[in-house]
Amino acid sequence: MAVPSPTLPVEPLPGLDLVARGKVRDVYRGADDELLLVATDRISTYDAVHPTPVPDKGKVLTGVSAFWFGQLAELGPHHLLGTAVDELPAAARPHAEVLRGRVMRCRALRIVPFECVVRGYLAGSGWEEYRRSGTVCGIALPDGLELGSPLPTPIFTPATKAERGEHDVNVDLAAVIAGVGEDLAMALQERSLALYRAGAAHAAERGIILADTKFEFGLDGDELVLADEVLTPDSSRYWPADTWEPGVSPPSFDKQYVRDHVTASGWDRTPPAPALPAEVVASTRARYVEVYERLTGRSFEDWLAAP
Question: 7-108, superfamily in CATH?
Answer without folding.
Answer: Phosphorylase Kinase; domain 1 (3.30.200.20)
